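ok so i was messing around last nite and threw this chain in just to see what happens. nothing serious, just curious
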Amino acid sequence: MLAAVIAILVNVLSNWVFFRLDLTSNHAYSLSPSSRRLVSELTDPVVVKAYFTPDLPAPYNAYERYVRDLLTEYHAASHGKVRFEFALASPPEEFEKKAAEAGLVPIQFEEMGSDQLQIRRGYMGLVLFHRDKSETIPSINGVQQLEYDLTSRIAKMAVRTKKVIALSSGHGEISLKPGYQGQASSRLGEDLKELYDFTEIPLPAGATMPIQADALVVIGPKQKMDEKSLWAIDQAIMRGIPTGFLLDIKNLMINQFYVTPLDHGLGDLLRNYGIQLGDRLAYDAQCETIGVTQNASGFAFTTSMRYPYIPLVDRIALNSPITRGLDTVGLPFVTTVEPVPTLPPGIHFAPLLYTSGRSWLASAQAYSSVAPNAIPQPKPDDPHGPYSVSALVEGSFNSYFQGKPIPVPGQTLIGSSLKTQIFVLGTSKIMDPSLPQFPGGEALMSNVFAYLSKDETLLGIRTKGDILRPLKPVSRAVAEVVKVGTILVVVAFPVLLGLWRWRMRQAWRRIISAAYAAPKPV
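result:
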């Protein structure tokens, strides 16, 4: 009776006093500090209504349980301010009608039965309500970005001053606006535009007025910048505006796997700040897989091939806010980012991302093909990685135009900056909407924009994707020893176990025989 009373009291108290422990390596079942901080500061409740069609095929049947667990984390972190409910799934006609009215998008599922393939339609989505505002996640296609989707939408609905981010334009830069090169804007671009006020600064036309923003980002210019454009960027940095550079060294025509040289004119400017871009593409045996269409005997078929020009980077400096929550990042057509031989005084250069030890640099000779069947084969004694492909540089920088004529009449040179930050990534293709999304790209760029604009709310919201655990390469001799040893262990283990059991039974029989043979006391 006493035990039952104690059990009841423990269960009642656990509703108020409890703790959670997430032992997964990527913390898949707990919230990021940014999400906890945001929802803990809510003054008005957020209501989340979830729509899930029942009995979905695997792996979608596990999404509902994951969403329920994640929303429970939000509820606990917000001290009850985040509330949630799951829409009743019956009757089915009424459920589908309400889901469609809420703005959810139906998803088609393939389900293999005992003798046939069935195509089903179902809903997996969320609707968020806060005050007089609402936000919709039309469909949940995976759990990797779900926390970011939820937190960013809560931040959008809550009273929050948006940071202003300036984007350079006028030299073929990648734009976050729809219609860039005939493409719709990427999902990341759409999400970011809801969270920040982006303003495009046309250079050099905009160089006559100082750039005013919380951060400045230069994404993939394709034409060489003139002195007036460099002046606008340099003086923005001198005024202490954190600046990001996502730069390429090759023009890419991905449909033909063809590249041409590219000169954006920013090399000398970056070297003045202590940053040196490489002149060769990095390629890595630890890389992404792409689908390649081939023709044979009049038939077209698609095969999956490993493509070393898209390294999968898992050597990450985890002590930086920019890399917080990252496990793996796919970086297409990337080059090296290194410090100059002699760093200016007071400048701190911190590499953030490294290729693997099985990476090399493409030939210094002129080349145009980057086709999967034309990947250069390095020699065993060729220099190899890891190579730094991204860095964060901090300090008080000297102007690039010190001792030079001022290219914009009427403006005054600011010779040195306050302490500020410069982020450099050796590729802009991670933001190109014409290319597919690569692992970790959205999380990295979300952190970059949040860090440069000093937006602590959205900095470091973790993704929950699969963690890359590549097998380390070993020599052929070691591989053969492991192979033979594994076979011998599989065969020898049951034999040795049987012998051990036989000896134990023999010993047991001798003990029993000795006990029966002993003279009985009179």
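not much to say yet. The radius of gyration is 30 Å.
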